[in-house]
Design a protein that fits this description.
It is a single chain. By secondary structure, the protein is an all-alpha fold. It has one domain. 76% of the residues lie in helices and 0% in strands. The protein has nine helices and no strands. Helix 3 packs across helix 5. The protein is elongated, with a radius of gyration of 21 Å. It starts with a helix and ends in a 10-residue tail after the last helix. The relative contact order is 0.17.
């Protein structure tokens, strides 16, 4: 639940910031009467993402044989890739988000109300569809949907409240630090998703090494116990990882951490 709460909070806050920037800019340029088209796009995007998430989570457990581990492994790797893109992009490009959105909004205003709707729909819909994939991946990994959905919804609700308070100006949050710390935590989450995908493909023989365990601490941390369940839900932890699964975790974690924490090069100014 913790991992899904964090994902919902981060995705939701990004979407809330986008909506806040769009509406604030419309009012700034005396186009406040057109905010309803932004909201139509937002609610349409939310409806689409909710429908996709509901379809995924209600049909995933009807897969039989090798289909479920294959799809689960594939979605785990896709989810890890999406999280990677999200945290790296935000760490490097978030400071330009406002200017880029305002430029896109200027073009949308000139084009017409349909473009305003589409801009909001695409901006929020991308976050929503990513969240839907994360929910499905979490449901497959944990074997149930309730905790995953509750955690994600709580994260989205908190993000909505924070976004609204930020828009009203009553809450001051250092967004750079928030995205920095949450991004660092999500690297661990994504590494766990990536290694879980490897384990699922090993289960059906798509990858070798099922019997080659790196270690076995199931006697200390049971997969069915409270601590094991918490670690599995948050980080896809297993007390019996294979060598390939552990190598995959490290191969993912090392370069992504480097890219995330690497400081951008300073551009030399010519005299």
């Amino acid at each position: 639940m913790l991992a899904n709460f964090l994902i919902g909070l981060r995705e939701g806050l990004e979407a809330a910031l986008v909506v806040g920037i769009l509406i604030a800019y419309l009012k700034k340029v005396n186009q406040g009467s057109r905010t309803r088209y932004i909201w139509w796009g937002v609610w349409s995007a939310i409806a689409l993402a909710s429908a996709v998430a509901a379809f995924f989570t209600t049909t995933s457990f009807k897969l039989h044989g090798k289909a479920e581990p294959f799809i689960s492994g594939l979605l785990s790797i896709v989810a890890a890739a999406l999280i990677t893109w999200m945290i790296i992009w935000l760490s490097k490009k978030a400071r330009f988000m406002k200017a880029e959105l305002e430029g896109a909004l200027d073009r949308a205003i000139a084009t017409g109300v349909g473009s305003l709707f589409l801009l909001a729909f695409v901006s929020v819909g991308r976050e929503g569809l990513e969240t839907a994939i994360f929910i499905w991946n979490g449901a497959l990994a944990s074997g149930g949907t309730s905790a995953v959905v509750i955690g994600t919804i709580l994260g989205l609700l908190v993000a909505s409240i924070l976004g609204w308070l930020l828009y009203l100006g009553s809450l001051k949050v250092n967004l750079q630090k928030f995205f920095r710390y949450s991004g660092a935590a999500l690297i661990f989450v994504a590494a766990g998703m990536f290694s879980y995908g490897i384990a699922e493909w090993q289960e059906i023989g798509l990858l070798p090494g099922t019997s080659s365990l790196l270690f076995d601490i199931s006697g200390t941390i049971s997969a069915e116990g409270l601590l094991g369940s918490i670690l599995k839900g948050a980080l896809n932890f297993t007390p019996t990882p294979t060598v390939l699964q552990s190598a995959g975790w490290l191969i993912y974690f090392t370069p992504v951490s480097y890219l995330f924490f690497k400081k951008p090069k300073k551009v030399a100014v010519k005299a």
